[in-house]
Design brief:
The protein is mainly α. The chain is 49% helix and 6% strand. The chain is built from 17 helices and 6 strands. The N and C termini lie far apart (53 Å). The structure holds carboxymethyl coenzyme *A (CMC). The site of carboxymethyl coenzyme *A has 20 residues, from loops.
Length: 429
């Protein structure tokens, strides 16, 4: 039963328990079930389909209409008018910076972008063909062994320094993971470039000749960073929050987030899109592939979303960026990109996808853009991790600063064996 302020549960033939209803600024109300354990039962919600795990002021998604706001600002406006570091400032601090604050923030981040030289030795411990995400989980986690001076999570200044260090160093760590794999020498960051330009420089410059950054590609990459910067309580952000709820240091928590992001249902999807395009091979094979999707032999990667059941607003922006990049590079007739566009068209017109409200998500197009820029497929998820680091650390900071924070400790419905006695080895059948 529900009235304006509470939901009443009737259980055990007539006992009542009231649960207050909480209202947010946007989105559905939530029922505060913290007192539910008084019933002697737990709630059951695998996958958190009906559970708000925390209160947050950072990002809002309206999945039904396809809207995404960072601190109240629509993602479309930020992608068009802001840049990544400004969006980082916004996510971290809650407000857009003044010109002075922006200059100071940009300077701080660029000043922190070197990594401790001894971290180079850590790379050498990995096999050359290690996946860059494996390297990133290890190296980002190892930052806690290098930056002891900012590990007091109860000190707001330490938290801020750690956040800046992470946002600044993760691109350097990701680029170095790629270069180690390729056998290229480490390329030091350049502070006269923008964040995205510097990343392209660290990825692709060589000591032999000058590397000229293409502004269209750098802008496209910056937009990819903005679009991936945060997405409220997704799996990796929830992982960061859960890891952080025990008091673990921020570098360890972000490493946990990177590990979670790696999965193909989450950040691994843009990599999976390119692998899928390679498997399909050419436009003639699309109908057979689609039959397999409908028979549930495989999924159409880059389609569908847990929250967006109309369209992913990031996908619309990325589709435009995709066009800009393909034009700039003269790639519109490239067979792989033609195949991607044919696949998108067929899926959008197919009853199976329409019925299930399956639309292309951001990863369908971001994979294509990254591939056109010349970023190898194995670097797609590290780039997602690089961009999401600000979201993770913003959520971590919000959680740690909340005086009501508790260690995350879900309960379970146990369906294993009931109590039984140990049987000696000789007596077992
Ligand atoms: N291809 C084919 N069928 C699909 C797909 C897909 N990509 N996604 C969902 N379905 C079907 C699913 O089989 C189910 O069909 P039925 O009702 O007949 O059983 C129906 O659509 C509902 O799907 P669901 O599994 O209940 O949806 P979900 O909310 O649990 O899953 C998802 C969301 C993103 C995990 C899933 O859509 C998926 O695996 N997509 C492909 C991977 C991908 O692109 N992931 C990137 C997400 S965006 C980046 C991010 O935010 O991390």
């Amino acid at each position: 039963m529900e009235n304006n302020r509470k939901v009443t549960l009737t259980y055990n033939d007539g006992q009542n328990l009231d649960f207050p209803i909480m209202e947010g600024t946007l989105g559905p109300n939530v029922v505060d079930i913290r007192s539910f354990a008084k019933t002697g039962m737990f709630t059951f919600d695998p996958g958190f389909l009906a559970t708000a795990s925390c209160e947050s002021k950072i990002t809002f998604i309206d999945g039904d209409v396809g809207q995404l706001y960072y601190r109240g600002y629509p993602i479309e406006q930020l992608a068009e008018e802001s840049d990544f570091l400004e969006s980082c400032y916004l996510l971290l601090n809650g407000e857009l910076p003044t010109a002075e604050q922006k200059a100071e923030f940009d300077r701080k981040i660029m000043r922190h972008n070197m990594i401790h030289d001894q971290l180079q030795n850590l790379y050498k411990g990995f096999r050359r063909d290690a996946h860059p995400m494996a390297v990133m989980v290890g190296v980002v986690g190892a930052l806690s062994a290098f930056y002891h001076d900012s590990l007091d999570i109860n000190d707001p200044h330490h938290r801020e320094v750690s956040a800046h260090r992470l946002i600044a160093k993760v691109p350097t760590i990701a680029a170095q993971a790629y270069r180690y794999n390729k056998g290229l020498p480490f390329s030091y960051p350049r502070n006269d470039l923008t964040y995205a330009e510097n990343f392209l420089h660290m990825m692709f410059s060589t000591p032999c000749e000058e590397y000229k950054v293409n502004k269209v590609l750098a802008r496209a990459l910056d937009r990819i960073f903005i679009l991936h910067a945060d997405h409220e309580q997704n799996a990796s952000t929830s992982t960061v929050r859960l890891a952080g709820s025990s008091g673990a240091n921020p570098f360890a928590c972000i490493a946990a987030g990177i590990a979670c992001l790696w999965g193909p249902s989450h950040g691994g999807a843009n990599e999976a899109v390119l692998k899928m395009l390679d498997e399909i091979g050419s436009v003639e094979n699309v109908p057979a592939f689609m039959e397999g999707v409908k028979a549930k032999t495989h999924k159409l990667m880059g389609f569908g979303h847990r929250v967006y059941k109309n369209m992913d607003p990031r996908a619309a922006i990325m589709k435009r960026t995709c066009d800009e990049v393909l034009n700039e590079l003269g790639l519109h007739n490239d067979p792989k990109f033609k195949l991607a566009m044919a696949l998108e068209k067929i899926a959008l017109e197919d009853e199976y996808f329409i019925e299930r409200k399956l639309y292309p998500n951001v990863d369908f197009y971001s994979g294509i853009v990254l591939s056109a820029i010349g970023i190898p497929v194995s670097m797609f998820t590290p780039i997602f991790a690089l961009a999401r680091t600000v979201g993770w650390i913003s959520h971590w900071t919000e959680m740690i600063a909340d005086p009501t924070m508790k260690i995350g400790r879900p309960r379970q419905l146990y369906t294993g064996a009931p109590r039984r006695d140990y049987v000696a080895l000789a007596d077992r059948k």
